[in-house]
Amino acid sequence: MLRRAMTLIVSAVLLVGFTLAALAVPVPYVVASPGLALNTLGELDGEQVIQIEGHPVHEHDGALSMVTVQYSGGPDARMNLFTALSAWLSPSQAVLPEEAVFPPDTSAEEVTQTQAAQMDNSQDAAVAAALNELGIAYETAATVHTVSQGHPAEGVLRPGDVIVEVDGEPVADKDEVVAAVKDRSPGDPVRLLVERDGGKEEVEVGTVESGAGEPVIGVTVETDMTFPFEVEISVGRVGGPSAGMMFALGIMDRLDPEGLTGGHRIAGTGTIDPQGNVGGVSGVQQKMVSAKREGAEYFLVAAESCDQTFESAVTGQIEVVRVETLGEAVDALEAIRAGDTDALPRC
After folding, report:
1. Residue extents of the structural domains in the chain
2. Taking every annotated instance into account, which residue ranges of this chain make up the domain PDZ (predicted)?
3. What is the pLDDT of residues 133-176, one digit of tens each?
4. Domain 34-69+106-136+227-338 coded CATH 3.30.230
5. Residues 254, 262: Cα–Cα separation, whole Å
6. DSSP H stretches of helix in the chain
7. pTM of the model
């Protein structure tokens, strides 16, 4: 009996030991938790989040808060199974495969650099979208960013060239250049007028067929924007494109004498493009928790992300408003200011 009891005890101890060891093994998962909520109308480290120079600005009550997700884990700091299981049981956290945040063969530093670039691009797009919504003109230019080796443009075009005309027709942005080049058959040449080194030069570039069967010359073109006044947005080390819509609304509030919120506290998430289209984002459940902790009354979310709101731990505790464009977001804020919220589009 004593030997049998000792065997059972030893087996139990070993089982517990193996279980604890298994729980301590690093696993390739990432935990998403509610992150920072930052009022774009307020301050960060003693400075205005949105600073505008060269145009009259205004300050108003209320909040237009961007919200973020905080990630833990990853290739350089893997969590153990116990931590992952604990997060999986939490109503405000999500457990994701590591590759959902850190693509294969990509370091954490590269991910950070990509997110920083996305943040910069989203801020430029937010300024453009805000000015478009307000009817304030700004200048655009179609600038060559890269030239592909082995394509017709190699040796003819250079990074930094500004494409002014295509086949004699003026172009002002990336979309107009792409549309003009596509308006021919693969193999046909295209005449370009470019600005280079302070002068203008006309060049002819051949075309080849892309994988999609369309004519291409072998360059990437981006739309560079020059605004009539300076807008600087400071959010610390936050990265990614998902605050674009809230940046655009914050800029508009600073430029509008009456303001957009009517003193209400609004939070939201969604990307933005210069035309004011609001795109979907991930981590909405965690962002809604951050918004609620910040005291937000309403949460603006891209229509593409509506399905995520139903899984949030705070659904029903905060008014969720669905938007597809910056104009719709502005209309929603106008209804909130007026107290006429029954017709607000909801997820």
Report:
1. 34-69+106-136+227-338, 139-226
2. 116-198
3. 999 999 999 999 999 999 999 999 999 999 999 999 999 999 99
4. yes
5. 13
6. 2-24, 81-89, 108-134, 174-182, 244-255, 284-293, 306-309, 326-338
7. 0.83
